[in-house]
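Thread: Modeling a multi-component assembly for a lab meeting

Hi all, long-time lurker, first post. My supervisor asked me to bring a structural picture of a complex we are working on to next week's group meeting, and I have zero experience with this. I have the sequence lines for every component (924 residues in total). Could someone generate the structure of the whole assembly? Inputs are pasted exactly as I received them:
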Amino acid sequence: MTHVTLEQLVKVYAGSTKPAVNDFSLDIPSGKLIAFLGPSGCGKTTTLKMIAGLIRPSAGKITFDGDDILPIPTEKRGAVMVFQNYLLFPYMSVGDNVGFGLKMRGVDKRIIAQKVHEMLDLVKLPDIAKRRPAQLSGGQQQRVALARALITEPRVLLLDEPLSNLDAHLRDEMRELILTIQRKLKITTIFVTHDQEEAVLLADQVALIFDGVLQQYAEPAEFYQRPTSERAARFFGGVNFLPAKRDQNTVGTAVGTFRFTAPCIEQAPSGDVTLTIRPEQIRLAEAPEENTVIGRVRERIYVGTYTRYKITLGEHEIEAIRSADLPGSINEGDEINVTLPSDRIWVVPNAR
Amino acid sequence: MTTTDMEKTAPDSRARMATLFRYAALILLLVGLVLPFAAFIINSFAFRWFYPQLIPNEWSMDAWNSVLDDDLFNALQNSIVIALTVTITSLIIGLPAARALGLYQFRGKRVVEFLILAPTIVPGIAVAMGLNINFLRWNLAGEVLGVALVHLVPVMPYVVLTLSGVFANYNPEFEEQARTLGAGFFSTFRHVTLPAIFPGLVVAGLFAFLVSWGQYILTFLIGQGRVITMPVLLFTTIPGGRNPNIAAMSLVFIAPAVLILILTSRYLSGESNTVGGFGQL
Amino acid sequence: MSWERWRIPVMLAPTMAVIIFLFIGGLLYGLLQSLGWQPRIGNFDLSLDAYVNIMTSERYAGQFWSGLALTIWVSFASTFFSAVFAIIGALLIRSTALGKRISTFLFQLNLPIPHVVAAIGILFLFSQSGLLSRIGAETGVIGSPSDFPIVVRDRLGIGIILAYIWKEIPFIGVIVLAILQSLGEDYEDIAATLGANRWQRFRFVVLPLIMPGLLSASIIVFTFTFGSYEVPAILGVRSVRMLPVMSLDFFRNPDLNARTEGMAMSMIIAFFALIMVLIYMWISRRSVRES
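Re: Modeling a multi-component assembly
Sure thing. I ran the full set together rather than chain by chain. Output:
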């Protein structure tokens, strides 16, 4: 339950001229679950470590509940980090690992034992306190690492790629667990991931970071409906981009002019822009209406529950997805109606 | 992503003080470790170095001139011949054993490892005293060959340990691949095995050389004072010897060792069992 | 088929021949001699006389027990202080941003220096007219050589301990440094976020992590200093000798009976060392199991 702000954070590593993190400002409301999303090397882990106090920012400010915490050393910040590879201390039992933070604070042994018990219950691993970390599976180690972090009742919980080392089925379990615990304890939590799906599934808000610069900070759905750049759209699976010119409610392209009625339209740029639409929102082979153009099916790829089509529109090509249940068959070479619904298309600034 | 302590968060002035303190401590420690070398060099060129002069007023090459005589060249020659013999022999007989230990599991492996490790910890003095009479009887005592033979005892563990570490990370399927492509036993060894293990072989060989090079007590007990190597010569010079002469002789003695360190310092930071080779010097 | 079966024994044979004939053979023959076995003069009876003699007789007991005490003290002090300085050195080098390569090189510089030379170096540095004494005189801390404390050829073995510390700091230090570098600093970072301060991170994280390597390196140093001849021979005093020096002195005594006592003494040293090997293997096996 801590309100965290990052103000114009900059980190330039010694011996490097390019900042790893640049002018990074973010407001993280108390008790929220936030994702730092971006490709590897984008500065997200550096930012996480700056919040933890493990790396000192070159410039900028970090506050918890309005207090500047940069002068406070790591061990007194109450920002606990859980590393990607768990890093349970191999020479300690699971119980001693979980109790570590309390032992460092000089808490009475019996109280530690009791708290360890509670924490292991919380992460649904009762009765393993006596085991060694090496005897646990990856998923179990991850939960122990979480318990070890939570026992200190941190002001901020920092998770570095919490799901990436787990098998697919363990991921779902772990995701549920993190969500449940976070909702229950209401700890302000920041996690780092390179996987947009993970970010979307877990986070209240996603901070998309490229090259050390914050690109977009919004709720997950925004990245699908209203990306702020072509790169952001591509990172979330966008594939269709057409050069265009926007004038109020119309967007003109080489394949035709489309009406543009998306919500929050005032956020969209004007002038020379790029039109984008998600493949699953394009409608194929339906009765013509507004925003319908003719396209030729170049390739048809059957993927089981849906079919993916590559469609030529003049000099451009777009991709569309259509549920396999829909009636009517579309074959390669067919000329069909392609409808781009006016409330589904979006525009982003031209990428240079 | 590595972070140095300078990048760690802490109040500025205190962090700077701590960093300063750490550098001071490190420099003090390194000076302590390097100071004896300075003492050797100054001593070897000193001429009438009266107390309490920190640096001699007069320098001379006297010590070097008087030390570089036939006795020293004889001792150097003996040391080199013995160390080279030991190096080559130990590599040849240690290579198959290292391969067996690095690549295969077999019954009694633990016992074999224990036996090969034991000479690194059991003092040479006990072994050499026991061998002394037998070597006398076999006419190996007082002979270069006998000394080289007994040097194998402290050398073998390091050669085998270093090379078995190499083989532990070696994939023998490359050899099988070569055999299916028509290479015979020797050309497989020459073109596949040897290039793969060559760096390890060099390191093991340098260790073998150094361990033999520094050996005093085994040489003394088996050589019967008749095989004069560098350490034996140095030992006989110490009582009553002039400091500059002792210093110059010591420098000649350690020159190859320092040279080898410079050549291998790259390899040292990693493997701890490689570093273990220095435990016997 | 038969080749397959004999392959490993054949590969091991040459090395094992050296170990069995020269190492074990030497030890066994030494043991037999220490028990009074002298086939050349027709004495095949085994007895513990030499051992009893060393430990109880008026002639030997005094110097044996004082020598043993000195040996244990020197080995213990050398190992302890080398380990402490080695850890400090390794930690300092790890946290150094500037001049890391040159520091590491200087830290390792005396690794290949033979112990004979290490002893001479300590002589040059710490004798009453040595370099340190001159530095003291130059800076006005002492007035004359006799003001400089006697630390070489002293009864407490300080000079011997100094030589061993000088020699073994890099040996243990490089092993510790290698462990530290392979571990990285993540464990310490985690501990810091969990509330461990600088000292607690060392005590509860770094120390336990380096302990297996540190222990085995320390055992090698301890047994080496226990059984090594060169350094105490150069830097020790005649009145109280460390066991290896005493053992060799007896062995070279023209009196053949003393020779048996010398053998017995070297067997005591060897026996002690073998126990250390067992502890070493036990520790390394345990640490392998845990990692």
